[in-house]
Design a protein that fits this description.
This protein has 346 residues and is mainly α. The chain is 75% helix and 1% strand. Strand 1 (148-149) and strand 2 form a beta hairpin.
Length: 346
């Protein structure tokens, strides 16, 4: 049984890597200025000094200044959200847990909407992103402090605190929108719908340190998450410091999600559904599930962004709307399937 699961996980990893490389090449070449996939690969090889050949001046500019920053940003944001979802579900033993549950997305939205509505410009074009990142981290800290009691953090208390903070953040967002003018309301609406249309290399570099730190450190906790899946008491007997593990999980999820939301807006369902799909396909082991969810999240978001900018050309669909449009029915199917097989989540 274990050998079959390892083989399935290896096959899934290989399939996801192939799908991600293929999607990145297709996404880099597709758009108003079409570039054949072979030319994309040759230009990339030329840039890294492995042969290949450069494109003409326009093609090089479109590929390296417009398309690739967007593809790389989609990859980083998707990987961050997928990995954060796997960490949340493993760390809190709840299949419905996702980064938004502890208020990160809503907190980041408060910062971004507040910066837009108040007309803040103290960091130039980076003001909205910086405010979203800062307020997302601050919200997680507030949720964590409020949910602690006697040196412990209970899962139920943390989730209920997150729900309360989400509601408060929603009220603040509504208040900012009430005082905003029409132009600001339009900007706020588009930010909340989620998009990668403003992707640039500086934005990639802004999210890169948090994403890399989170993605590199997350697999370190995979074995402890496997032990925690046995229950808190057995995990403690096996040497897991449950409280310290949950703190580490919250910090990693905050880093991954706040950075992703700050540059891309609110994108739902990736962190919730990708770990579910992989768990159904390869079992609950976190040594595959954590890095696999990062790969799966990257595949989903690169594909979703490609669809968002090509399905309704020359217009562009909001990325968050697209993921919710496909994620909601799948989540409903997942609920029905679990109820039919297990009699519910309990």
């Amino acid at each position: 049984m274990a050998g079959r699961r390892r083989a399935r996980a290896a096959a899934l990893t290989g399939g996801l890597v192939v799908a991600l490389v293929t999607l990145c090449l297709v996404a880099a070449g597709t758009g108003a200025y079409d570039i054949p996939i072979g030319d994309v690969a040759r230009s990339a090889l030329h840039r890294v000094g492995l042969g290949g050949a450069p494109l003409d001046r326009v093609g090089e500019s479109v590929l390296w200044n417009v398309r690739l920053p967007r593809v790389v940003l989609a990859l980083l944001v998707g990987a961050s959200l997928g990995c954060a979802g796997a960490l949340m579900q493993g760390g809190f033993g709840n299949p419905l847990a996702e980064p938004g549950v502890i208020g990160i997305s809503a907190g980041a939205a408060v910062g971004a909407v507040g910066a837009i509505a108040l007309g803040l410009t103290f960091l130039g074009d980076w003001t909205v992103t910086a405010c979203a990142f800062g307020s997302g981290l601050l919200t997680v800290l507030v949720v964590y402090v409020l949910s602690r009691s006697d040196g412990k953090t209970e899962v139920v208390t943390l989730i209920l605190t997150g729900i309360a903070v989400n509601a408060f953040a929603g009220a603040l967002i509504g208040l900012f929108i009430f005082f905003a003018d029409n132009a600001q309301i339009t900007q706020i609406t588009f930010w909340q719908l989620g998009s990668l249309s403003q992707a640039t290399w500086p934005k990639v570099l802004a999210v890169l340190p948090c994403a890399v730190a989170g993605l590199v450190l997350a697999p370190v906790y995979a074995r402890q998450l496997d032990l925690l899946a046995l229950g808190e008491r057995p995990a403690r007997h096996l040497g897991v410091d449950v409280e310290r593990l949950r703190v580490a999980v919250v910090v990693l999820v905050a880093l991954l999600t706040a950075a992703a939301v700050a540059v891309a807006g609110i994108i739902t369902f990736v962190g919730l559904l990708v770990p579910h799909l992989l768990r159904m396909a390869a079992g609950p082991g976190h040594r595959f599930l954590v890095p696999g969810s990062a790969l799966g999240g990257a595949v989903v978001l690169v594909a979703a962004d490609l669809a968002a900018r090509t399905v309704a050309q020359p217009a562009e669909l909001p990325l968050g709307v697209l993921t919710a449009l496909f994620g909601s029915p799948f989540f409903f199917w997942l609920l029905r399937r679990t109820r039919r097989k297990q009699g519910g989540w309990a």
